[in-house]
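Researcher: Structure for this, please.
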Amino acid sequence: VHVSRIMLSSARFIMIQVIQLLKAAECLRHTIHTDQMIDRLMTSTSCFPMLSVVIPALRLLIDLANIAKHTLYPTHVKMKRHERCITARLASELYRARLSMINDTLWTIINALSSFPEMAHLSSPVALALVFVGLTVDICLLLYSYRIAREAYDNKKRQYKDEITSMYPGMIPDMSHLQLLDLERCYCGTQSRLNLSLLAGSVILVGFSLLITAPIPILAPLGSLICLLGSSLYLTAEAYAHYEQQNFVFNHNKIQPKTTSANLAAAEKAKQDAWDNFVFHLITNVCFPIIVMSTLAASLPAALLLLIALITFKIQSPEPQPLLPLTH
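Model: Predicted structure, token format:
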């Protein structure tokens, strides 16, 4: 949510700077009221601060409701022995949801304080510093997520290797090997998603630093542009992870003697399609906010229609191609 807000706010700031630059250069006709365009941009997007507080707060409430539901009415068919009492189930559910709850709690508080600093008697620099702290904590949470994913991967890999070494008669010989390969593929996708998210978080942090501390006025629009690019990278992390998984399948199947030329061609096509899908989403995530804000500056109804059309286009865009099987 906060990444989407940074993206839209950055696009709005860039559009305002463009309008002011064109006005100063007298590129716009006098019949076009640039002040009204800027006022329309600011007024129409005044709901951003409230939404940035309400949405993570609702997500936090949903997490708490799910925790209460799973604690009081467990749905696990085979519940672990140490989770049979309520306190143990509560601790287990809190542990499972800890990252999302920390993130939602953090940004509910930070967005509330930074969006309405007068209510908390905060100055504008302090409110901006809080957002900077939140972005830094985001990167720390991503690093922690990386560690959790690595530990889960190592534990599962150790389990599969133990199954391979202690194989008993009647067990399908290739089963654990296939599970190990699938684990490698899944971890490759998770690692790629977290790597791109870390890169995106760092880019947003650099852009936001330029935006709030730029000694030269021209660096502020540059900071907004960097924030927009970082936000776009963050929102395309899943598409990049899907590409890396398709790339893993292609590279693995390429060295397998049982792979037919038709299967290899299909894997190569799936890999290229996944890359094209990633690039498409990256470009649209950069361009769409600027297009919406430029249309909003001219006309609010036209911007609403364009936004509906873009959302419909995003929803109806084809799903990524399913992962091809690994040859063994």
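Researcher: Any notable elements?
Model: The radius of gyration is 24 Å. Residues 139 and 202 are 7 Å apart (CA to CA).
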